[in-house]
Write a structure and sequence with these properties.
By secondary structure, the protein is α/β, with parallel strands linked by helices. The chain contains 12 helices and 10 strands. An 8-stranded parallel β-sheet has the order 3-2-1-10-9-8-6-4. The radius of gyration is 20 Å and the shape is globular. The two termini are 22 Å apart. It binds 3-O-methylfructose in linear form and magnesium ion. Magnesium ion (MG) binds next to loops.
Amino acid sequence: MAGQYRFSFGPWNIHSGADPFGPPVRPSIEFADKLPRYKELGFDAVQFHDDDAVPKLSDMSPEAIAKEAAAVKKMLDAEGLVAEFVAPRLWEDPRGIDGGFTSNDPQCRAWAIDRLKRCADIAGALGTRLIVLWLAREGTYVRESKNAIEAHRWLVDAINQLLEYDAGIEIAIEPKPNEPMDHAYVPTIGHALAIAQQTVSPDRVGGLIETAHALLAGLDPSDEMAFALSMGKLWSVHLNDQNGLKFDQDKSFGTANLRGAYNQVRVLELAGYAGTGRFVGLDVKAMRTQRAEVAHKHLANSRAVFLRLVEKVRTFPKHVEQQCLADRDYEALEMAVLEHLMGS
Ligand code: 3MF
Ligand code: MG
C-alpha cells in the first residue's frame, strides 16, 4: 500500500517552534542534518524553497547559483531522495515587501521575475521540472493601495516570462486566501486555474492544494482537489489540518477533522493519483509545545493517518454505497461512512 503513494515534505516542516509571539523553543537543525530524517520517516522527496537549496542566492551570479544547486542534488542522491519542487521565497526579501509580481514598484516587479528564472535554474539543477508559486504577499492590506485589475495582468505576465524562459518548467499555483495579507489575489483553485488559462502555455500551469488554505477560504479541500483533478491539474497537495477559521495552523493531517481527511484521500483514490507519479506533500508543523526529541512525529503520524485512510477508502463496502445512491438514502450513506471510520 505505502509503495503506491510517494510522500514529500519541506525542510521548514522540521522547525524550531518560533511563532509571532515568541522565540524558538527548540534548537534549529541544519538542512544537511534534516535529510537523513526523510527516509527514516517514510518520505521520498524534498520540497524546496529556492533559498532552502541556495541560501545566499540574492548575492550570487546565475552560474554560482546553478553550481551550488548541483551540489545539493548530490546530497539528495546520497540519501536516495529526489526534489519534488522549488518555490521562490519572495516574501522574506525587502524587495518582496509589497508582493513582487504585483508591487507598485517596477524595480521590485523586475526583481521578482528575475528570481523566478533563478528558481527555474535551481529546479533544473535539482532534477525537477515543477515550480510552486505560493503568492504570499501578492494582495493587499488596503484595497486602494493597488490596482487589482492591473495586478492580475502582471501576475499572468510574470508566469508567461517563466514559461518562456524554460520550456521544460511546469508551474503549480498554491492558492491561499489570506495570511500574511488581509486578502490575497489568488485565493482559490478556481482563481489559479483561470489564471492558468490566460497564460501562453495553459497545459504547463496547474495547482497545488493545501487543506488549511482551502478551509481558510471557507471551502471543502476535497472538492477543491476534485476541481483540479477533473482538469488533470492537481500536481501536488499540502495535506494538513485546520481547526476553524484562524491563523494557518498546519496541524497534522486528520487531527481536526478525520472525515474531511477521509474525503481528501477518497478524491485522490477516485482520480488514481498514486499512479500519476505525483507526490503527496505534507505541510505540517510540530506544535510549539513539542519537545525537540519528538518534534518530527507530526510527519510520520500524518503519513500513517493518510495510509490508514487509503485502507478505509478501499475497504468501504461498494454495495452499500450503490444501494444508498439507488435509494437516494444519504442518511444511510452517511451512517455507513461513520461506522466504517469508527471501525464497526
Ligand atoms: C504558507 C505555505 C507555504 C508554502 C510553501 C511552498 C511555508 O501557508 O503553505 O509554506 O506551502 O512556501 O509553496
Ligand atoms: Mg503549503
